[in-house]
Amino acid sequence: MSHKSLGQKILAIDLGARRVGLAVTDDDGVVPLPVGTLPDDRKASDRIRRVARLAEARGVGAFIVGLPLESSGAVGESAIAARAFAERLADRSGKPVTLIDERLSTVEAAELIAQGGGRGREAVEARDTISALVLLRAFLDGARGERILPSAARPLPEPSRS
Questions:
Q1: Is 28 helix (H, G, I), strand (E, B) or coil?
Q2: d(CA 126, CA 109)
Q3: How confident is the model at residue 153 (pLDDT cuts 50, 70, 90)?
């Protein structure tokens, strides 16, 4: 396990098309555990509010958000939306958010479900939660990502010198 958790609870978020998959560490920030899914709200502000409330109720100290890059590694619309979600969540919660490349998490989640014999609607609904678990495990194992601080903690840009 990586030193990244430092004894704090971490909530991982997989922003799916229809659901938001969630996983959280134990109180020591070591063992990833499934939380389940939230239906995807049409308004990003509602989704952020619901996730922030859940995190506060569970005593979360930091977040992981999956960054859905294109297969080539390029940043597309989904990645831009995930980054905006992460920035707004950091500001709303006052907690840091780390964006982790999620290109392989959905594939790995589908493989895990297939290995477990999962099929049908339950398997589809479990995929987002398992994807969040895969993201969280990757982070705990040392995967790097872009850390976003709440706006109050972000450094100000240097003034331009003309």
A1: coil
A2: 9
A3: low
